Amino acid sequence: MGKFIVNRMIAAGFVLLGSLLLVFFINYSLPGDAVDQMLEGTGATPEMAANLREELGLDLPFHTQFLEYLKNILQGDFGHSIVNNAPVLDKIITQFPATIALTIVSAILSIIFGITLGVFSAIHHNSVIDYVARLIGLFGISMPTFWSGILLILIFSVTLGWFPSIGSDGWITLVLPSIALGLVGSGAIVRMVRNSMLEVMNEQYILTLRSKGLSEKTVMYKHALRNALIPSITIIGMMIGDMLGGAVVIETVFSRQGIGRLVADAITAKDLPVVQGVVFFSAIVYITINFLVDISYSVIDPRVRKSF
C-alpha cells in the first residue's frame, strides 16, 4: 500500500509539471501578450511597451520564464496578476470555494440520480422503466452544458420564477447551475451502472446466492450493486474532474463567481500568472480525486486491496 501511494505521488508530480508546461507553452505561443491588452487604447509607444515587457520579464526566453515560475511556486509565490497586480493566490482563494461548492453539489446530484436510474434500468431490463432511464441518460449525455443552462433559466427562472437566474448568493442560486452541470455526468453514470449491473447479474455467484434463498433485494443491492460500482467509480472520478472544466461555461451562463470565470477573464486578458495558478490548483484537485478513486477500489473490492 505504501509503495502504491509513493508511485501515485510521483505520477502526480509529473502530471502537475506537464499541465503547467503545456498551458505555459500555449500562452507563450499565442500572438500578442498581456502588455498589448494593458496598453490598448492608451496611445503608448513601442518603446514604452518594450520597457514594460522587460519590467514584467515577458522578453525573456520561454525556458527562462518557465523555470523562474517553477522556482517561485516552490517558494509559495504564485505571482501577481499582470492586469491589476493583485496576488494570484488571493484571487484563487477568493473564487475557488464557489466553484468547489458548485462541483460538489453537481457531483452529488449526478451520483444519486445516475446510480438510482442505472440500477432500476438494469433490474427492469427491457421494460418501460428501462427505456425511459436509457432515454434520460442519452438526453443528459447529449446536451451541451450551455444549452441546458439556458433552457433551465428560461423554464424555471424566466417562466416560472422559482429560482434566480444569476448570482452566487445562498444555496438557492446553486440549484439551476448544479442541475445543468450534473446532467452530463448523471447520463454517463446511468449507462455505466446499467451495463455493469446487467453483466454482474449474469455471473454464476449471483445464481448461487439466489439458490441459497437470499432475497432478491439482498442479492441486488448488497452483492450485485457493490461489484457493479467498481467500473462506475472510474467514470465518477473522471466526471468530477470534468465538472471543474464545465464550471467555466456554467459560471459564465449563470454569472456566478468562481475559478471558471476567473480563468476565462484571465485568458482573454492574457494574464498568464492567473491562468497558471488556476491550472495548478485544478490539477491538484483532479489528481486528488483520482487518488481517492484508486483507494476506493480497495474498500469496495477486497481483491484489489490484496494486490496493493
Structural overview:
By secondary structure, the protein is mainly α. The protein has 2 domains: 1-78, no CATH class; 95-269, Orthogonal Bundle (MetI-like fold), CATH 1.10.3720.10. Helix content is 79%, strand content 0%. The chain contains 13 helices and no strands. The chain has helices spanning 2-29, 34-39, 46-56, 62-74, 88-123, 128-142, 145-159, 175-201, 204-211, 216-253, 259-268, 272-300, 302-307. Helix 1 (2-29) packs antiparallel against helix 12 (272-300), helix 6 (128-142) packs across helix 8 (175-201) and helix 7 crosses helix 8. The longest helix is centred in the last third of the chain and has 38 residues, at 216-253.
| Major sheet characteristics | none
In the predicted model, the low-confidence regions spanning at least 5 consecutive residues are none
Number of helical segments with 4 or more residues: 13
Coarse morphology:
elongated
Do you know the CATH architecture of the largest domain?
A: Orthogonal Bundle
Rg value: 24 Å
Mean pLDDT: 77
CATH level-four homologous superfamily name of the largest domain: MetI-like
CATH class of the largest domain: Mainly Alpha
Q: Tally the beta strands.
A: 0
Structural class: mainly alpha
Briefly note the CATH topology name of the largest domain. Answer: MetI-like fold
Percent helix range = over 70%
Beta-strand percent range: under 5%
Distance between the termini: 5 Å
How many structural domains does the protein architecture include? 2
Following the backbone from N to C, one meets helices and strands in this order, namely HHHHHHHHHHHHH
